[in-house]
Each structure stands twice: as C-alpha cells, then as structure tokens.
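# step 3/5: fold
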Amino acid sequence: MLLDQVIALTLFAFVSTFTPGPNNVMLMTSGANVGYLRTLPHIAGVVFGFAFMVLLVGLGLTQVFITYPSLHQGLKWLSLLYLGYLAVKIALSGQVSSQEAYKPLTFLNAAGFQWVNPKGWSMALTAVTLYSNGGGVWELLVISSAFMLVNFPSCSFWVLAGKEMQRWLTSTTRVRVFNITMALLLVASTLPML
C-alpha cells in the first residue's frame, strides 16, 4: 500500500469515526453518566472490535454477502431492530442517582456491538472495497490498524464530550431531554442505512 493510499485511508478513518453514529452516541451517553475511566472498557471494545471486524470483512465476509445477499439484508434489519431497542432504553432511562446505577458496556459487549452496527458495516465494507488492492493479509492489517489508531482518539473525544455534559445535566428535565435527544440521534444515525 502506497503512502498516498495510507494517508487517504487515514483521512477516511478519521472522518468516518468522528462523525456521529451509534458507537459515538452510546459513548457520549456513557461519558455523561459515568465519566471517562468507567467507559474505558467500552472504548477498548469499540477500538479492537471494529478493527477485528474490518479484518474479517476483508478476509471473506464480503464474498459471503455477495453470494448470499439475503444474509446481508437480514443482518441489516436485525441491526436496525437492535439499535431501535437501544434507543428506547436510552430514551426511557431516568436520571442516574449514582454512578453505580449506570452500567456502561463491557469490552465484550462493545466489541460484539460492532457486528450489529449498520454504520460500522458500511465503514468496514467501504474501507475494504476502496483501500484494498489485493495485497492480502498485510494490506488488511494496515487498513484495520489505521482504524484502530484513529478510533481511540475519536471514542475518547465522544466520552469526554459526554462527561462535559454532566455540568448541564443537573435536573430531571435536562436528563430526560438529553436521553431523548441521544435516542433520537441514535435512530437518526441509522437512516442512511435504510
């Protein structure tokens, strides 16, 4: 992979991971509820789970979806239903009386979530399609690593933005508005996938 391709890939990874999507909305919500340190396992799950997903997509999952398009369509609808469920949970959650009451995603939950994240699938398929030139596993490792390196600061940014929201989330009404807004943003982030 040539240097100009790596730069283009890194720019794509930067833009696609920093823009709002299901991961970022959930990370911001977690940051607002429990802060940065308690959200670190969630961050790590997103970073490593997505990089692993990109690698597997490049190694052959794309071909499976080409061969069985109904499998891709079914996974897409399953993903949308799961994100709808998460949006309802976020919208209906109330003000957390203590940080112990909020349960951020674990490493495994966050890594597993990548497989039902429609924006993640779109990003992975696009990255492998655009930046893989048949260079084999080495090339896929470069693509996967680019996302891993860019995803950590992106995730951290969204968690810290959520943590800053704690200053504003001082009443039940504000928490309700925040949770409903986050739920609506989560749903809105899936609309381009329809």
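# step 4/5: annotate
DSSP finds eight helices and no strands in the chain.
# step 5/5: archive (pending)
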